Structure formats: C-alpha cells, structure tokens
C-alpha cells in the first residue's frame, strides 16, 4: 500500500518530517558557496537529477563498477540470517534509496516486515521506486520521505511501533567526511530508537588500479555522470559552464583512504553563475565527490564512536565490499 509521497508542503509546522525547502534554491546556495572555496568543491548530492540518477543506474551495470554487484551478491547470501533477527511488524528505513533495487533482496528475505520508508533527495526517482515496491509487495506499508538523509526527519506514524531497521547500502556513507559519517550514524540511532538494527554497506580498501577503473570506466559513463553536474547547473541555475572545457578525473587519495572525483578545467576561463563570475585557471579542478574506502577496523571504530555495536561483519569475494549489522 502506497502511503503517498511526503513533501515539505504536507508537513505540520514543527517538528519537520521532511526536509526539502526548494531544491533549486539549495542547489544554487550550495554550489555558489563551494565554488567560492579554494580548492573549489561541489557536493555529490547534486549529481542526482533525473539524468544523473539514470547515469548512476548505468554505472551500477558497468563491468568496472563492482560495488553494486558485489554487494547485492553478499546481501543475498546473508539477508535470510539477518532478517531472522528483525521480528514481526518491523519497519525498514532506507537512507538514500534511489531505485530501491537492493531493497527487494531484504524484503524477499523478511516477509514479516510491516513497513518500508525510503528516503531520497530525488523526488522523481523516489516516487517511481516507492510505487514499484508498493506494487510488488501489496501488504507492505510504503511511506516515502523526500529529502536529504543527513537532515533526518521524524518517521511517519503509520509505520507502527515495531523494531526499526536502518538500511544504508551502496557505500553512500563513503560520500561523507569522517565527522559527518559519525554524526549521521549517531542521529540515525536516535531516529530509529530503542532496539534498532542498522544494515550498513561499505566499500573496502583495495588496489588503486581496481578502484580507479571503477571510477573512470572505459565507456565514459562516470565522466558523463560527473559532468552532468555542470549540465544541471546550466539548466537549473542558468550557469554559464562550457561543459566541453572540463574533463573527468578520478584519483586515489591514499592518505585519506578515498577515491576522489574532480572536474578539471582544460583552459583559463570565467564562468557566470548567479550574478557572480568564477575564474578558473587551466588545470584547476572542482572536487565533486569523495568515496571513502573502509577496513573492518575503520567500520568498527566508526560504529563505536557513534554509539552502535557491531553484531556481524561480512566480507564478500574480491573485489570485496562489506556489510555490517549494527545494533543500537
Ligand atoms: C552511490 C556514492 C556509493 O561513491 O561509488 C559512482 C557514486 N560515483 N561512481 C560511489 C559514484 C562515481 C557511488 N555512491
């Protein structure tokens, strides 16, 4: 049963249940602020307009991009054992749910789940995915929340009082800085409440060759995904990026244990955005994404620092990703 997409307009004045206050306005504010920094940055959350969401789905099917495939296989293997701990009447709350494809693996393993709350910043992708899940699982209450999962809202009341199961696959946690990741996990623990479980998917440190190929594929889909940020800024913000004068760069930063994506200017230029002029030197980059890579020790450290206990930690075959089951 589809409970309808919750938008900011539907919300009671306080406390806020969702977190969208005009996506375009926030995109403008955030991008202008990031381009004013040195070095220039942009948040990866702005990748996911309709075209960006489509390109990301295409990335997940690339031969070089192993994380989605490896995680789905691992999840299929361990979901039955982990789902046995949910209990009847539990609610699955997914942070950054996108197309909700991996969700099906959990839902199939946990037929007693009462409710599903997908949270995503892309309203279009969220609405479509929630409708598809509601159609496939008619007994499930599907109550989507549109917004930034970092600004957690109160959960919809109709999901009932059963145990809450956080679901955060895809190594999306890797997009956050260490401090942000810790703050997010602590907030999620409070939001999910007493007795909560949390299924966390992370990508693991591995050889730089494998990592760089995954973020710089031969077909150029990741390059298109990265540059789509500029296409989106031109369309939604009337920015003046000459998209062809920026190239995709994917680099392994060993010191910070992360893959980085950049857009590198191929010439000196000036770009108009929101009445401002931003200057680029040839070779200067906009740092558009961090994708942090973890170890079992770094996941355990993060869980402990944010108040969770690690109940299980499973690693798949190479190229390896891991799933952790956290307990409140
Ligand atoms: C969806 C954030 C997990 O970091 O691997 C894919 C996004 N960026 N290719 C990742 C992404 C470039 C992806 N996450």
TrEMBL record:
Start and end residues of each Histidine-specific methyltransferase SAM-dependent domain: 27-327
Protein's recorded name: Dimethylhistidine N-methyltransferase
């Amino acid at each position: 049963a589809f409970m309808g997409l919750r938008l900011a307009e539907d919300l009671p004045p306080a406390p806020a249940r969702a977190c969208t206050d005009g996506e375009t306005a926030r995109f403008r504010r955030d991008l202008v602020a990031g381009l004013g920094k040195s070095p220039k940055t942009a948040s990866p959350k702005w990748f996911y307009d309709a075209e960006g969401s489509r390109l990301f789905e295409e990335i997940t099917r690339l031969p070089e991009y192993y994380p989605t495939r490896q995680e789905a296989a691992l999840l299929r293997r361990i979901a039955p054992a982990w789902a046995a701990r949910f209990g009847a009447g539990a609610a699955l709350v997914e942070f950054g749910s996108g197309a909700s494809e991996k969700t099906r693996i959990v839902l199939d393993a946990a037929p007693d789940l009462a409710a599903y709350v997908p949270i995503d910043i892309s309203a279009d992708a969220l609405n479509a995915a929630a409708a598809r899940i509601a159609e496939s699982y008619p007994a499930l209450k599907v109550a989507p929340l549109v917004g930034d999962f970092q600004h957690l809202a109160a959960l919809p009341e109709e999901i009932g009082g059963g145990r809450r199961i956080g679901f955060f696959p895809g190594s999306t946690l890797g997009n956050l800085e260490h401090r942000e990741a810790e703050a997010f996990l602590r907030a999620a623990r409070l939001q999910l409440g007493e007795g909560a479980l949390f299924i966390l998917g992370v990508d693991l440190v591995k050889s730089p060759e494998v990592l760089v190929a995954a973020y710089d594929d031969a077909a150029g889909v990741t390059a298109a995904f990265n540059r789509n940020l500029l296409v989106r800024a031109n369309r939604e913000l009337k920015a003046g990026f000459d998209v062809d004068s920026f190239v995709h760069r994917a680099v392994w930063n060993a010191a910070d244990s992360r893959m980085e994506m950049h857009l590198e200017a191929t010439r000196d230029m000036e770009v108009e955005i929101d009445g401002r002029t931003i200057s680029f030197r040839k070779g200067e980059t906009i740092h558009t994404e961090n994708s942090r890579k973890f170890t079992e020790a770094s996941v355990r450290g993060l869980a402990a620092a944010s108040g969770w206990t690690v109940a299980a930690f499973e690693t798949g075959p190479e190229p390896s990703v891991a799933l952790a089951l956290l307990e409140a």
